[in-house]
Amino acid sequence: MAERKFKGFGGLVLSADVRGAEEDPSVLLLHGGGQTRHVWQETAEALVKAGRHVISLDLRGHGRSARSEDGRYEFDACVEDLRAVLAQLASRPVVVGAGLGGWIALTAIGEEGAHLASGLVLADAPPEIDLRTAAALAASIRSAPAQTEHVDPVFGEVIDVEKSSERISVAASGLKVPVLFVRGALSSFGNRDAANRFVEKVATAEFAEIEDAGHLAVFDRSDAFSAVLLDFLERRVPRMMPDYKQGSDARTLRDALGCFATGVTVVTTMSAQGEPVGLTANSFTSVSLDPPLLLVCIAKSSSSLEALEISERFAVNVLHIGQQPVSNTFAMPGEDRFSQTPWEEGQYGSPLISGALANFECIKSDLHDGGDHVILIGKVERAKYEPRRDPLLYFKGKYRRLHFA
């Protein structure tokens, strides 16, 4: 076991125990208010034995993490701490949060999306939080620091769970990663009906109860909790990498190819009738600077292919982060695409998407057969770009944005 330091919100130093092999899938453990990372001892050991890389983090003002000199212990600061820690990890972990730690994780991941984590486990942290539950938890946190020297007493006075209850509930509806909500069957926090409503509302969620256990059953019945947790991980976030072999599931190959992050473009041309034609494509590549060549791959099933094969000129329009609606429009069949999108005729006659990150006007250089696609190579006649915008990205079947560390 080693200790690792992270930079949290405002540069505050956060401390964590790290166990297991770094190449194994990661699990980040986040304790509740008034606790420290040491409460995860048994669960962490079980995870390492099951082939997981485990990071047990102390919240700000807890354990070996630094105390805030200006008393910044509000809920938002804790959420920003977690986002900062996740940004410093080499891979997206499954985040396991107990009590307050669960609500912090839920908010960070639900608001920011799946790029922060590969899964979420809520241990006695009801995703549907009412004011009574929030008040009860806040009271338990306020009383906890008086019982231990390892927690800044100011934390319990500042943390504003009640004010954040609506935010937590809204964030729960935005969860896209695999989610497990675990509660002790005898816990006074939340109830089975609320858990079932959450599972019905969030398609990626499931629910498990630990019998004969109350609040924080994760620690009182760590053996039972570890069994539930490991079952969830092996089913929803498995250790073994998906493996494609020729002739096997094409979806696996598609997912593997989706691991290559790309920009998003709209390829345009004028039809023989003088009408603008275009489609969304992310298979765009720079080929050569001398001569200036690029290529795009067009599906043979595309309704725009015929016009691109006939026309001597075309354009590639690279989209910026604010042009996701443009990408969607040109990806949908049967849409009157150009009536919904600002565009102009380029210097060489091809339609150009207005305000794009970059526009490349090309003369057709060559066409090649590429299986179920046609490879269209163009010689760049003119290019212009906007240096003050960021690209719209596509990764693993979803739109993304640049992350600046």
UniProtKB/TrEMBL annotation:
InterPro entries: AB_hydrolase_1, AB_hydrolase_fold, Flavin_Rdtase-like_dom, NADH-dep_flavin_reductase, Split_barrel_FMN-bd. Residues 257-401 form the Flavin reductase like domain. It holds the Pfam family Abhydrolase_1. It comes from Henriciella marina. This is Alpha/beta fold hydrolase. Belongs to the non-flavoprotein flavin reductase family. One of its GO terms (molecular function) is hydrolase activity. Keywords: Hydrolase, Oxidoreductase. It comes from the Bacteria.
